[in-house]
């Protein structure tokens, strides 16, 4: 991922170059490898690069051979080679960047190109071959990457885009989070949805499209494996975030298998090359120990976890890593270190949502450690809980239709919470997080599974399956991977069937307690009683929320900035507590007893 900043529709762009270069510096943490700037007839495109694919040639903004189409992209296009093949000899490429394929696709298909892309991306494309010049801007289907759009009363007719809010707050008095799965076209000032999956209207107020497909465990497993495989596209060191929970452990397990396949293929290719270049008698066959030693010299998958001392996540991650054979790194933080980081975390997150701040702080601290080791990309497990109804409050769903509608609603709003957290807390240090669960193909399979198959089983006669395993949250995902391909299980039973922990709980329960205690000392009863006077809209309901909002307002004091924040809370009409912690749900540590 990278950082992009663009403005279109301004007078005399060359005169604005210096000012926009200064604004782009606010995004440099996202792209420390290179900075690029293009000044056009009516606009400016700036790019802060984190080089992962096409490292040696992919600096941006990218410019077409005729110099008329200019492109700045934040993200990765996983199917870029397949797309290049469809263009044949009609297209020529100047770089090895996965993003460059967008330019010839635009020339051939216009803004319809967006639905052809498989990846995570936000981009701004400037077409100077037409008058007036044209801008196309788009964001990936779920909003894994971040993108904001803004307008300024000081510059009527100008439209701004940025990967982060902080580059726009001093320029724009109206700012929105650009909607995922949409494309903007300056030609008619339209923003239209290009992402049209079959499950999209599952949360409609009237005539919702309900999921009715029986679960196919093999298809579910193989689609997720393919999603992980395509996300290993990288020319730099990568790893996995491993909390020891189901989602991150499954991603780590698949990635470890795929990494071993790549290492073995590289080893075998090297051996073939050596054999072909060696004259004389045939090279003696290596014994097993020598072969193992050679294989061990190839890169292994690295895994990373964080928590308070002896936290649930650290212990579970350690067990998973040992089972998977990853090179494991764990980092212990203290409550005070977390509290000290909160202002910086809020600056990078650009939200006052309590859940997001709680969960992002450990992730922010871990990302700094990972980047210091030279790793630029990690795989992460975001999205599974929304897709499969894994949050413990889903236990309160009154029926399968409501369960499915809530899944759809949560997936549609991932860009306001988990995707925002995964993107910004890692990119604060120039670390890219990729999320296989949000693969388009996996979503199409998983979101169409009958919600009755996803629901928690409350009836004692249906609470366990034929193997005696509890039909708990995300049962179908656990069941899909409860097998032994090639004789080796994906995970130990204790990890595969571990109960859900919110990430902010799993790093150590005293982390949330520490934030609450700190907020109670910071916010007086008198100030808290007047909170509705200060914030009549989105009024904080706890001292923790007040404390976080206070910091946010100090960093981003404009009303335009505050309007971009969205709070994550469980379903109140299901009788759930507004506290997002898993411990606030009565099912936690009570509903299931397992070995």
TrEMBL record:
One of its GO terms (molecular function) is asparagine synthase (glutamine-hydrolyzing) activity. Pathway: Amino-acid biosynthesis; L-asparagine biosynthesis; L-asparagine from L-aspartate (L-Gln route): step 1/1. The record marks 382 as: Important for beta-aspartyl-AMP intermediate formation. Keywords: Amino-acid biosynthesis, Asparagine biosynthesis, ATP-binding, Glutamine amidotransferase, Ligase, Nucleotide-binding. It holds the Pfam family Asn_synthase. It is an enzyme of class 6 (ligase). SUPFAM superfamilies: Adenine nucleotide alpha hydrolases-like (SSF52402), N-terminal nucleophile aminohydrolases (Ntn hydrolases) (SSF56235). It comes from the Eukaryota. The active site is at residue 2. ATP binds at residues 241, 306, 380-381. GO terms for cellular component: cytosol. L-glutamine binds at residue 98. InterPro entries: Asn_synth_AEB, Asn_synthase, Asn_Synthetase, AsnB_N, GATase_2_dom, Ntn_hydrolases_N, Rossmann-like_a/b/a_fold. It catalyses: L-aspartate + L-glutamine + ATP + H2O = L-asparagine + L-glutamate + AMP + diphosphate + H(+). PANTHER family: ASPARAGINE SYNTHETASE (PTHR11772), ASPARAGINE SYNTHETASE [GLUTAMINE-HYDROLYZING] (PTHR11772:SF2). This is asparagine synthase (glutamine-hydrolyzing).
């Amino acid at each position: 991922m990278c950082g992009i900043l663009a403005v279109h529709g301004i007078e005399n762009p060359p005169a604005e170059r210096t000012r926009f270069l200064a604004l782009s510096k606010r995004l440099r943490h996202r792209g420390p490898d290179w900075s690029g700037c293009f000044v056009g007839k009516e606009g400016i495109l700036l790019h802060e690069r984190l080089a992962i694919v096409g490292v040696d040639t992919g600096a941006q903004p990218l410019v077409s051979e005729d110099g008329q189409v200019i492109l700045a992209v934040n993200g990765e296009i996983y199917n870029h080679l397949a797309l290049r093949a469809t263009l044949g000899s009609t297209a020529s490429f100047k770089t090895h960047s996965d993003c460059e394929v967008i330019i010839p696709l635009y020339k051939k298909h216009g803004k319809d190109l967006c639905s052809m892309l498989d990846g995570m991306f936000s981009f701004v494309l400037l077409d100077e071959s037409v008058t007036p010049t044209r801008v196309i801007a788009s964001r990936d289907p779920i909003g894994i990457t971040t993108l904001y759009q803004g307008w300024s009363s000081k510059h009527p007719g100008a439209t701004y885009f940025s990967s982060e809010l902080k580059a726009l707050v001093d320029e724009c008095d109206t700012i929105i989070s650009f909607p995922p799965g949409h494309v903007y076209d300056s030609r008619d000032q339209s923003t239209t949805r290009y992402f049209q999956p079959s499950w999209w209207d599952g949360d409609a107020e009237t005539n919702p499209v309900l999921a009715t497909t029986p679960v196919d465990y093999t298809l579910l497993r193989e689609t997720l494996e393919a999603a992980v495989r395509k996300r290993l596209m990288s020319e730099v060191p990568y790893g996995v975030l491993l909390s020891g929970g189901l989602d991150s452990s499954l991603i780590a397990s698949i990635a470890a298998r795929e990494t071993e396949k790549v290492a073995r293929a590289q080893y075998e290719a090297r051996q073939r090359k050596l054999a072909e270049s060696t004259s004389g008698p045939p090279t003696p066959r290596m014994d097993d120990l020598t072969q193992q030693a050679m294989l061990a010299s190839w890169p292994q998958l690295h895994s990373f976890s964080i928590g308070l001392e002896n936290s649930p996540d650290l212990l579970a991650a350690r067990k998973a890593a040992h089972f998977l054979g990853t090179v494991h790194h764990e980092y212990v933080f203290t409550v005070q270190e977390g509290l000290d980081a909160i202002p910086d975390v809020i600056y990078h997150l650009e939200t006052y949502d309590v859940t997001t701040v709680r969960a992002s702080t450990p992730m922010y601290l871990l990302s700094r450690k990972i980047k210091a080791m030279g790793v630029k990309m990690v795989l992460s497990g975001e999205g599974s809980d929304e897709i499969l109804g894994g949050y413990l409050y889903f236990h309160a769903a009154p029926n399968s239709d409501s369960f499915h509608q809530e899944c759809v609603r949560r997936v549609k709003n991932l860009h306001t919470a988990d995707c925002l957290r995964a993107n910004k807390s890692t990119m604060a240090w120039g670390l890219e997080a990729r999320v296989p669960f949000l693969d388009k193909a996996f979503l199409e399979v998983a979101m169409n599974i009958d919600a009755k198959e996803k629901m928690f089983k409350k009836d004692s006669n249906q609470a366990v399956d034929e193997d005696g395993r509890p039909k708990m949250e995300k049962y179908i995902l656990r069941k899909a991977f409860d097998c032994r391909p090639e004789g080796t299980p994906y995970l130990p039973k204790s990890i595969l069937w571990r109960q859900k922990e919110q990430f902010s709980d799993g790093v150590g329960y005293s982390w949330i307690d520490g934030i609450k205690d700190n907020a109670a000392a910071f916010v007086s009863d008198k100030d808290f009683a007047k909170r509705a006077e200060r914030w009549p809209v989105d009024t904080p309901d706890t001292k923790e929320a007040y404390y976080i909002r206070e910091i946010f307002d100090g960093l981003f004091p404009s009303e335009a900035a505050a309007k971009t924040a969205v709070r994550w809370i469980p379903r109140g009409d299901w009788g759930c507590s507004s506290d997002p912690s898993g411990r606030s749900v009565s099912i936690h540590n009570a509903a299931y007893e397992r070995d």
